[in-house]
Prior knowledge:
Shape: globular
Number of helices: 13
CATH superfamily of the largest domain: Bordetella uptake gene, domain 1
Oligomer: single chain
Number of domains: 2
Low-confidence stretches: 1-11, 21-26
Mean pLDDT: 89
Strand content: 15-25%
Number of strands: 11
CATH architecture of the largest domain: 3-Layer(aba) Sandwich
Helix content: 40-55%
Order of helices and strands: HHEHEHEHHEEHEHEHEHEEHHEH
Amino acid sequence: MLPRSFAALFPTALSALLAGTVLMAVAPLAAAQNFPSKVIRLIVVYPPGGTSDGVARPLAEKLTAQLGQQVIVENKGGAGGAIGMDAMAKSPPDGHTIAFSAISPVTLLPHVGKVPYDPIKDVTPVASIMYSPVYMLATSAFAGKDFPDAIAQAKAKPGSLRLATSGIATLGHLMLEQIKLTAGVDIIHVPYKGGGQVITDAAGGQFELFTSNPSPGVNALLSQGRMRVLAVSAPQRLQTMPNVPTMQELGFPDSNLTSQFGIFAPGKTPEAVVRRLNLEINKAIAAPDMIDRLVKLDNVPSTTSPEQFAKTVRAEYDANARIVAKAQIRAD
Length: 332
């Protein structure tokens, strides 16, 4: 005769199973309700002094006030952002370690060389922060008048121009490779470990050209006349630089790219924690003083939901796979 119920046969086992199921369901909710329970570490995946640093630090101050827990900024630059992204990805997935970064360490760098993290499984997009145009700048070492002069020099004297970027497999690197393909020129790539040192060396004329997002350091040197913007990578001319053409206008549509920056968390971070972070970050970016800070530097606030940000990141990841294959970009 069969038992009337499984519970009658294994009451202790069933109770334990049900209790475990309930605990598994409740644990993420409890984690979100208790979040944050300690200091939050915000890893900026670039060295101090660049665009990211200038936005991450005031953002951390806003989040500290909103969350009631200190948010500390830690710079971990190098390898195009991979070092900092890896440190974040290998942290406990509880929302207490997050990263401020351009999306390229997730969407571009993995296609160029091996990275120590899985960009799909180990990284969770949390919140979009901003879009940023890219300046194509000339230092005192460049004697030409404009960007067409740079292309003319590169054609007449292959290898005579050096163009610095914030690193291998960054947006600036991708722009350079597209320029070389489109114009059929040889321009030497000078990759750095982040934007801060690029700006310092640019001020000293250590190379002819470089790419950079807007930042207080770059803008200060521009106002001092120590460097010039030859072109901008943006959907249209910037209101602050109406006489500077876009890369699209100059005949380089594939190089007319903008940087998107956002916040990332480790893979498997509870959805409720991701949503809480997204809500608080969006609130901080919407503050009038934060908007003013971004807009004055020609950046465009671009807050959205975690789902939309993840969708954007994945679309960029897939698009870059095709671009890198066509341009044959390699980390070496």
